[in-house]
Design a protein that fits this description.
Elements: H1 3-68, H2 74-91, H3 94-102, H4 107-125
Length: about 140
């Protein structure tokens, strides 16, 4: 065995040790965080789209009818908000619901906040005069 072969074997051994102890754990950590971030982004996208769909539909049907019947008050707002939150939760994808469960996040409170934020943003844009949120 010559000196260059011994040096090459030593370099390979050191490189293998570095890859195994340093690079692979870092790569695994990066992949895990990337996957977690993608799941979170997917859950947020699903929640946002579901909130918009359910709130817009609820405004067009329930809220407009309650207003037409002159029955739009605090109690009606609370009932419609609860209805919307329930239907949003029912219509979330399985992966989004699982994400909430896995992260011990209160899905009802989160959905209610998204509903209220969506209604507020619509009011700011001037695209809605309706309000199913009891807090605005």
């Amino acid at each position: 065995m010559n000196v260059s072969t011994m040096i090459l074997e030593a370099v390979i051994t050191i490189a293998s040790a570095i890859i195994t102890t340093v690079l692979l754990p870092l790569l695994a950590q990066w992949l895990t965080s990337k996957t977690t971030n993608q799941k979170l982004q997917t859950a947020i996208r699903d929640l946002t789209q579901t909130v918009a769909t359910v709130v817009d539909c609820t405004e067009q049907t329930m809220v407009s009818q309650l207003k037409a019947d002159n029955r739009w008050n605090y109690e009606a707002q609370s009932q419609v908000l609860n209805y919307a939150v329930e239907h949003i939760i029912e219509n979330l994808s399985t992966s989004t619901t699982k994400w909430f469960e896995d992260n011990s996040t209160n899905i009802t409170a989160t959905v209610q906040q998204y509903v209220e934020a969506y209604i507020f943003s619509k009011k700011q844009e001037g695209t809605s005069n309706e309000d199913i949120s009891k807090n605005t």
